[in-house]
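Methods — Computational structure assignment.
A single polypeptide chain was analysed. Its primary sequence is given first, followed by the predicted tertiary structure written as structure tokens.
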Amino acid sequence: MSRAFVKETDSDGTVLPDRPLSPHRNLVTEAGLAAMEAALERFEAAYRSATQAGDRNAAAMALRDLRYWKARRVSAEVARPPDDSSKASFGTTIRLRRADGREQSFMIVGEDEADPARGTVSHASPLARAVLGRNAGDAITIAGSEAVLLEVR
């Protein structure tokens, strides 16, 4: 076969497409910033290890994650909770009651640190956007149903 029609690759092997970056501001808590820096260290170590072992696929995956976390670190803005926590804002914890009587608590955090199963939601999520700027006692609409903010702290 003629080499004229074969795509040449980089000398290091496999190249993976970048992970998508969010169009939203990259707000993070102090804990989120620390987790971001730990991820950078973890993927730098993974890349070195994969390169030394000659594992091109693992090196490509680690390099892709390194590019992602470096970009996120550069754009990170540490946002501290306000002194006055009477209004829902980044870094505050919210407790609400849904129309069916269920109560739910969550903390509003950055996109990379959000984990709803652990009680954290991204500031860019529909749930957080519904409560941002609201006070305890306010009624809100979430996913087409009513809810009441019980507490903001």
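Note: Residues 14-78 form one domain.
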